[in-house]
Design brief:
The chain is an alpha+beta fold. It contains 6 helices and 15 strands. It has helices at residues 30-37, 43-56, 69-79, 157-179, 205-208, 245-250, and strands at residues 2-13, 15-17, 38-40, 60-66, 87-90, 100-105, 109-113, 131-138, 141-149, 188-193, 228-230, 234-236, 239-243, 256-257, 290-295. Helix 4 links the parallel strand 9 (141-149) and strand 10 (188-193).
Amino acid sequence: MSVRIATFNVENLFARYNFKAKLKVSKDDGFQLNDLAFDIFDNVEKTITAQAILEVEADIICLQEVESLPVLDRFNNSYLSKMKYKHRMVIDGNDPRQIDVAILSRYPFDWLKSHRQETKKNNTKIFSRDCFEAVVNVDGKPVHFYINHFKSMIGGRDKTHDRRLEQVNRVIEIIEADWKAKKYKGNFIVCGDFNDYLDKNSAVTNLAHHEGVENVVERLPKAEQWTHYYSKGEYTQLDYLLPSVWLAKNSKAKPQIMRMGLPLRATKYTGKRFANIGQDNPKASDHCPVYMDFELIS
């Protein structure tokens, strides 16, 4: 059977207290007041973010930069109801800005696991956010996800390289422990915002080109592999879908990168954009959703 799977950094999916709203509260309890005032921050921008997700029409979409499960629930209920994502999960990670990884699915979860508490020898956390595992039951066929958002390049790509490399190496350890003895025969996907692109100085090469997975974006022409635009004129792949080689071999489709939500400053993209897109803002995100139709194997 075919299932459409996506990854998307939704850029700051937050909710905030609406201090300007004229609230009428029938009960003087903080919970009701908070429920009334709690709303998605920047409705215009997040409407465009939702349009990007609606355009992709994924059965399962892995997200980065989601503040919390209540925020994801509110976003899903308010903007994505037609997608019927009945199954949603966010586990708080380690980021001080509260930008976590998440998953939306039309299919139920079999189990979930977080690696947020893992530490190095000096007792600092390995993951900037998390390596969040989710096993989704797609009509009796389990699909195992490893959802990531590695250390950003803020502060300099070279200076942050080793931190990303630590996270990459830990994810490799996890998938090898789960799948190497099985010769990587299984429906599993490593995905997310890796915050690095592939060249001789990359921190993510060992994962993106691991023997057990395929970087399916490389099925596209080189000029079409970019998923992110940086203001200094850099068009690079920061977002990855890495299915097992077994699953990838069975899935002949090419991935797609949906760029209709990019700001106008990303001039390399000349196609159609959503309404109300600005030069810098509003926009769907500074990243593009990456998605592909996979043929699951029993």
